[in-house]
Amino acid sequence: MATTKRPRTLDSFFSPPPSKKIKADPQDTPVSDTLAEPRQYSVHPTYPFNIAQLPAEIIAILNFAPAAEPTIMNSQPDLDLLYYQPYIPKDVWSPLFDFLRRELPFYRVKYTIKRGPTETLINTPRFTTVFGLDETARFSPTGVVVDATSGKPCGQTSYRCRPRPIPECIDVLRRLTEASTGCTFNFALVNYYATGSDSISYHSDDERFLGTDPAIASFTLGAKRDFLLKHKPTEAKHESEVKAIKLPLASGGMILMKGRTQSNWLHSIPKRKGGDADKGRINITFRRAMVKGGTENYYRYNVGEGGVHRWNEARGEMVEETGK
Ligand SMILES: O=C(O)CCC(=O)C(=O)O
Ligand SMILES: [Fe+2]
After folding, report:
1. From the CB of 191, is ligand 1 less than 6 Å away?
2. I need a surface site. Which of 62, 141, 204, 267 has the fewest CB within 10 A?
3. Where is the region Disordered (predicted)?
């Protein structure tokens, strides 16, 4: 048999430090100085830079997740929530937070909303990024978006956005989450709250593209922030009749919101002063989008059109990269 070129699968994309871009990057230092193994990368044309895979020492510990049994929170009307405190084993909270903050591309998305004749510019008050593809499509082994049923390429016109595969460093956690919850997820949304001024206002993740009663797994790494939940107003019960809930979400924790939670409750991370909020908090949510509209929505509001930001260790902040 003639020697064949190794097929360009997504996994083979993960092999050797692929570009000068990476080598030239001063931040490209291993998590631990003693690490001898070469770093491997997730690579895709839609990524603004190659995304490092987790070092084996982090994966080895992460594989012990979930670190605790969940608490069931379902005694309030329409609330159906599992709370893992923690889900991620303690020894990797800090290295995993540092790794993801350093290695992922982040965006500060701006968009306009129209209410009647007036257009308002919204500046998303946190850093965001997203990876994944809805149920109607998947990535082929070579990283091309193909129809989920026929396996044929979807073509340039089926999505306005350019969907990004979930990089291996996050997919490890997605697979663990699927195994422990029995749920299926095809999207990872990541929020980075740099300071106590970053926030997300009251909303519910009840978009139709998620189907009825969606399950959403939501992780915290880094600073503790309050997660507020309040019942939506209904004709029968006024909002104030069902007590609001405050969950101080701490590093390593995960909440699984499911059942009637999204259709009946709103949640938020309010701005806060003091505490360790200024050390930064990463939130990762895994979700399952059913139709193409979900993919369009997630990329529009979590990647958008602006420049990519990357963590700068020397400056201790996200810095917008030019020309990417
Ligand atoms: O940061 C969090 O814990 C919540 C984020 C959230 O609600 C969302 O992204 O929809
Ligand atoms: Fe949410």
Report:
1. yes
2. 141
3. 1-33
